Every structure is written in structure tokens, then in C-alpha cells.
Structure to design on (241 residues):
């Protein structure tokens, strides 16, 4: 599999952010959910091309208000992630906000264990990786959720799953954010780098997760005809932090 766009991974793909931009709006390469820059998210070398660089001290995050399809009733959130530190309560993916959050992916306070959590009618359901990520190392993280299970994959392999009696997830379609808990302010912010972030309106398969990871190399959204990678909105790395 050479890319996402021309493979089975394009099925039910809602949004894909390559995060190549040096600053400002991050374009949705697949859908209509461009992300607005809040507090000047920077740029760093990514897993594929460039990536978004978040500084917790500045409360930086990317947000889409009134998104289309980013709070699905079942789905997948995926990206490459590199942590610089573990701020207490940080969220690097969040939809809907504090009081009625739907989906969040974060490292848990005190333990720093990677957690994918969904708010269901029957209560919160979480999948927790019992290993603490190592700082300054790239990880490929995928969180899938259905009405009966939440599952967490790290570097192409399933590391945690919680199953439960059928229950619908909250899908009130409030704002979506990368880099902070999305409540319209810079709270519970992430410190590190995010690349190649995507949302599906289905739980992608374990085989597709492995394809995305690609033995640690990753795959681009769209590959060039000659076998390279098409980098949209590419700019020189300015102000690398």
C-alpha cells in the first residue's frame, strides 16, 4: 500500500491533515475541516515531511469550530506523535469540550499512560496502554471506537481494548482540536509534535492499522506517480523549535 488516498483507507475517511504548513491554518487534504491556528503552533521535522510543533508553555492548539463529521458514532483517530514532556492532563486529540466530551486521547496524570477514552450513554469507556511512552521518540497511535468496544493501537499493534454492552457514544458535534482539550481555550495542552493526523467514521481494521504504520516508516496521504510523496502546502522549516 503506497498511500492513503488511493487505498481502502480512503473508505469513510473524514479528514486528513498532513500538517506540512509552517504556521497558520492547517489544511484538510481530504475533507472540509481545515484547522485554525491558536497561539501560533510552529513547525518541526515530521515523520513524513514536516509536522505541527506544540509548545505547552504557550497553550498552542489547532481547532475546527462547527466541524463536519469529526464526532462520528463509531470511528478512528490516528496520528504520529512525539512527546517532549507529559503535562498533567494533556490531551492531544479532543472533541466536544469538558462538560460533555465525546472522544479524547491523552497521557493520564501521574502515570503518563497513553489513554483513549469515549463518553458513552452508559459512562466513560477507556483503553489504556500500560507502558509509558518514551520522550522524543515517534509513536504511531490509533484509537478506534464502536458501540461495543474501544481499542488502542501503538506502532501497528493492538495494546489495549475494553469491550462492553452495546451503548451509543455522545455525538453532539462540538468543536474539534489537536494539541489541547477543546473547550475554546488553551487548557490541558500537549507538549510535542504531531504529524499525519486523520479521522475516520468507522473503526479501521487491524490490518489497516499495520498498513498505516508500515514497519515504522508510515505512508503518505498521497504518493507521487514516481513513488515519492506529494507534499501539499510545503514550506521551508522556519523557526524550528
Amino acid at each position: 500500500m503506497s498511500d492513503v488516498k488511493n487505498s481502502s483507507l480512503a473508505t469513510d475517511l473524514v479528514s486528513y491533515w498532513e500538517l506540512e504548513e509552517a504556521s497558520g491554518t492547517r489544511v484538510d487534504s481530504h475533507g472540509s475541516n481545515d484547522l485554525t491556528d491558536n497561539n501560533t503552533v510552529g513547525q518541526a521535522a515530521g515523520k513524513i515531511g514536516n509536522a505541527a510543533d506544540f509548545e505547552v508553555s504557550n497553550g498552542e492548539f489547532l481547532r475546527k469550530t462547527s466541524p463536519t463529521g469529526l464526532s462520528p458514532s463509531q470511528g478512528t483517530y490516528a496520528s504520529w506523535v512525539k512527546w517532549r514532556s507529559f503535562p498533567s492532563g494533556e490531551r492531544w486529540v479532543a472533541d466536544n469540550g469538558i462538560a460533555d466530551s465525546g472522544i479524547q486521547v491523552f497521557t493520564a496524570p501521574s502515570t503518563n499512560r497513553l489513554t483513549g477514552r469515549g463518553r458513552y450513554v452508559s459512562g466513560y469507556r477507556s483503553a489504556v496502554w500500560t507502558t509509558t511512552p518514551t520522550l522524543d521518540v515517534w509513536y504511531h497511535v490509533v484509537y478506534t471506537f464502536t458501540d461495543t468496544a474501544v481499542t488502542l493501537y501503538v506502532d501497528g499493534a493492538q495494546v489495549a481494548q475494553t469491550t462492553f454492552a452495546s451503548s451509543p457514544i455522545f455525538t453532539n458535534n462540538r468543536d474539534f482540536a489537536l494539541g489541547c482539550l477543546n473547550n475554546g481555550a488553551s487548557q490541558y495542552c500537549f507538549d510535542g509534535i504531531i504529524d499525519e493526523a486523520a479521522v475516520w467514521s468507522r473503526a479501521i481494521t487491524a490490518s489497516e492499522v499495520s498498513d498505516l504504520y508500515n514497519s515504522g516508516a508510515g505512508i503518505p496521504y498521497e504518493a507521487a506517480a514516481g513513488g515519492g510523496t506529494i507534499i501539499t502546502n510545503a514550506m521551508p522549516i522556519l523557526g524550528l523549535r
